[in-house]
Amino acid sequence: MKIVLSVCLIAASSAMLAGCNSGDKSQPAATQTAQARVVTSQQQQAAEAIRATGTLHAHETAVVSAQVVGRIQQVLVHEGDSVRAGQTLAVLDDATLRAAVEQAQSGVKAAENQQAAAQTNAALAASTLARYQQLQSQKSVSPQELDEVTRRSEAASAQVDAMRAQSNAAKAQATSAQTMLSYTRIRAPFAGVVTARMADPGTLASPGVPLLQVDSAGPLQLQATVDESAINMIHMGMKIPVRVDAAGGADLTGTVAEIVPAADPASHSFTVKINLAPSKLLRAGMYGTAEIATGTRQAIRVPRSAIVIRGSLPCAYVLDGNGIAQMRYVTLGAAQGNLVEVLSGISAGEKLVDDPGDRELAGKRIEVQP
Fold first, then answer.
1. What is the phi-psi region of residue 256: left when phi exceeds 0, alpha when psi lies from -120 to 50, beta otherwise?
2. Do 128 and 69 sit in the same domain of this protein?
3. How far apart, in whole angstroms, are the C-alpha atoms of residue 150 and residue 40?
4. In terms of domains, do 339 and 321 share one?
5. Considering the domain boundaries, does residue 104 fall inside one?
6. Whose CB among 123, 125, 175, 236 lies 3.0–4.6 Å from 156's, allowing a Cys bridge?
7. If we measure between CA atoms, which residue out of 264, 295, 277 comes closest to residue 222?
């Protein structure tokens, strides 16, 4: 009896399942459509290049310090001030050195007076010798008296030479003191811009302690670090594309002005100095990148407008054979004009949605707009 009941239950279950399976199957949802412009990825010949990074510098940079010890009385410039060559930048206390100049000038006067006295004595001795020589020709003086007068004249002449040397030494000392006094006026070594001020009035200045930094006026240059494997591809006067992101990302063209002949033994790299054209957007200290061409290669490029950012990653909507958009994450390379290189994620000749904006187009059929 139990066996018959079990068979009936199984049959009933099978009938129910069969009834469920025999119902109408649901139809798949229709694919949504969206209108958009479509662009095609292109395979183009691109320059093979090595990127060399560096910092913008002025052609000349001087760290100004005092040449004598003294307390700073005035600092006459601030960061950003333009200065002329020889312009006074700071003033030191000059009381001690001024006293030294006055003392040296007094020494010069004393030496000149002594020299004048010696010259007078020498002139008198010379005239006396001339008279004695005349008298000696007349046999009016003895040879001993003539010898004494001659020796006195020679001594007077020697005294003149000694006083002249002493006077010259005093003048040299006065010139040195005057030069030391001039060092209390710290001047600009060339025309340029003050880029750093490291001291204020009251500070004790001493030789070798930086007070100010002055960068020369005029165009800047990029001092880039180039690996030793690429240094033979660079030559003087070579035109190199340079990009400075802090200056709005403008593409610049620089000229190789100097190649430092010795490599850094630690990094095995060379410093290459690239002159840039004048620009109000460029500032010393900015970071720049130079593109050094090494050959050519095939690259896939797409319009920048076809690239969108999803989750902080670049991607593009690529159409399959049925015109359905698929979102692909891509790896981007260098940009050139309104095109950007795609290193991975897109093949040549594929169709992409142009300027998708914030729309979610994945899985939608794209109706191409003209």
1. beta
2. no
3. 113
4. yes
5. yes
6. 125
7. 277
Asked if 189 and 72 sit in the same domain, the reply is yes
* pLDDT tens digits, one per residue of 217-271: 888 999 999 999 888 889 999 999 999 988 887 778 999 999 999 999 999 999 9
Residue 309 burial (CB count, 10 A)? 8
| 3-class state of residue 135 by DSSP | helix
What value does the mean pLDDT take over residues 144-169?
A: 87
Structure tokens at 230: 């690429």
Q: Which residues contact 189 (CB under 8 A, 6 or more apart)?
A: 62, 64, 85, 214
Q: For residue range 18-60, list pLDDT tens digits in order.
A: 443 444 444 445 678 989 999 999 998 887 788 899 999 999 9
Kindly state the tokens that stand for 2. Answer: 């139990």
Give residue for tokens 């700073």. Answer: 72
Spatial distance between the Cα atoms of 90 and 87, rounded to a whole number of angstroms: 9
Q: For residues 213 and 64, is the Cβ–Cβ distance under 8 A?
A: yes
Count H helices, E strands: the chain? 3, 22
Q: How many domains does the chain have?
A: 4
Give a yes or no: residue 121 inside a domain.
Answer: yes
**Domain membership flag for residue 265:** yes
> Which H or E run contains 216?
strand 210-216
- Could you list the residue range(s) of the whole structural domain that residue 68 is in? 63-93+184-215
174: alpha, beta or left? (left if phi > 0; alpha if psi -120 to 50): alpha
What is the pairing mode between strands 313-319 and 61-65?
Answer: unpaired
Tokens of 273: 């100095």
pLDDT at 140 (0 to 100): 75
